[in-house]
Amino acid sequence: QDHVCSLPRVPFRGAPCSDAAGSQVPYATIMNQVNSSLSGLLWDEVQKAPFYEYKDSVGQFHQVWFDDPHSISLKAAYVKSRGLRGIGMWNGNSLDYSGEAVAEQQTQEMWQALTP
């Protein structure tokens, strides 16, 4: 409700929320899943990040947060405006390198977003 999803506190190396409570999903999976999700693509203005919600085959609700070219470009612009030394993204190998036209465009847009 109201797009609030709470994870149980699972202490892991001092972090309150981690892979012990959630898991990483490849960008290709996200792009395939977001359009058929319960919520469609949502945007959090505070985090400047997209997310969506879906229900799995056993009826469990899930919320997936991720970066896309828009959110990455906002972060890259922030870094540049503050004169910081650089930006990176976690696991670029999770992008879709299948060679399909749509996947190729999405992957190219993601890498281009890193340079404002």
From TrEMBL:
InterPro entries: GH, GH18_Domain-Containing, Glyco_hydro18_cat. GO terms for biological process: chitin catabolic process; oligosaccharide catabolic process. Transmembrane segments: none annotated. GO terms for molecular function: chitinase activity. Residues 1-116 form the GH18 domain. One of its GO terms (cellular component) is extracellular space. The keyword Chaperone does not apply. The keyword Hydrolase applies. Keywords: Glycosidase, Hydrolase. It holds the Pfam family Glyco_hydro_18. PANTHER family: DI-N-ACETYLCHITOBIASE. This is DIAC acetylchitobiase. It comes from Erythrocercus mccallii. The lineage of its organism: Eukaryota, Metazoa, Chordata, Craniata, Vertebrata.
